[in-house]
Amino acid sequence: FQVITGGHYDVDCRLEDPDGIVLYKEMKKQYDSFTFTASRNGTCKFCFSNEFSTFTHKTVYFDFQVGQDPPLFPSENRVTALTQMESACVSIHEALKSVIDYQTHFRLREAQGRSRAEDLNTRVAYWSIGEAIILLVVSVGQVFLLKSFFSDKRTTTTRVGS
């Protein structure tokens, strides 16, 4: 799994087998990988928790790889040697699985980078609006201050004669 967006990019993760035994438990992890072999058939439960940061919405990518791929050719599991064409197909298939893994990794990095860029864009927009408002308030204040310098306020004093 990998946290793509939200907060400090960390979640709690727990995996239980069909009997309720905890197989995996980690706290505040940004990413991790866990491999296990099921001891019996049944439904495993996994939970991603965000209890420590309830105000932050998070997006989590997770992936399952279950078992081995079936053979490309029915003759691949036999004892005899594969033909040159069959062995080339098997090696190409393995290379393409590797390419798929790399593409998934780069898509995750791109999604994480896009999320950070959008967050930064929002912050810059709010900062710019705040600066514009402050500039407007200061400008109006300066106009009134300068206007007060040039206004002619004549004070009249009256003397009471003696």
UniProtKB/TrEMBL annotation:
<dbReference type="GO" id="GO:0033116">
    <property type="term" value="C:endoplasmic reticulum-Golgi intermediate compartment membrane"/>
</dbReference>
<keyword id="KW-0732">Signal</keyword>
<keyword id="KW-1133">Transmembrane helix</keyword>
<keyword id="KW-0256">Endoplasmic reticulum</keyword>
<dbReference type="Pfam" id="PF01105">
    <property type="entry name" value="EMP24_GP25L"/>
</dbReference>
<comment type="similarity">
    <text>Belongs to the EMP24/GP25L family.</text>
</comment>
<dbReference type="InterPro" id="IPR009038">
    <property type="entry name" value="GOLD_dom"/>
</dbReference>
<dbReference type="InterPro" id="IPR036598">
    <property type="entry name" value="GOLD_dom_sf"/>
</dbReference>
<feature type="domain" description="GOLD">
    <location>
        <begin position="1"/>
        <end position="66"/>
    </location>
</feature>
<keyword id="KW-0812">Transmembrane</keyword>
<dbReference type="InterPro" id="IPR015720">
    <property type="entry name" value="Emp24-like"/>
</dbReference>
<protein>
    <submittedName>
        <fullName>TMED7 protein</fullName>
    </submittedName>
</protein>
<dbReference type="GO" id="GO:0005794">
    <property type="term" value="C:Golgi apparatus"/>
</dbReference>
<keyword id="KW-0472">Membrane</keyword>
<dbReference type="GO" id="GO:0005789">
    <property type="term" value="C:endoplasmic reticulum membrane"/>
</dbReference>
<feature type="transmembrane region" description="Helical">
    <location>
        <begin position="124"/>
        <end position="146"/>
    </location>
</feature>
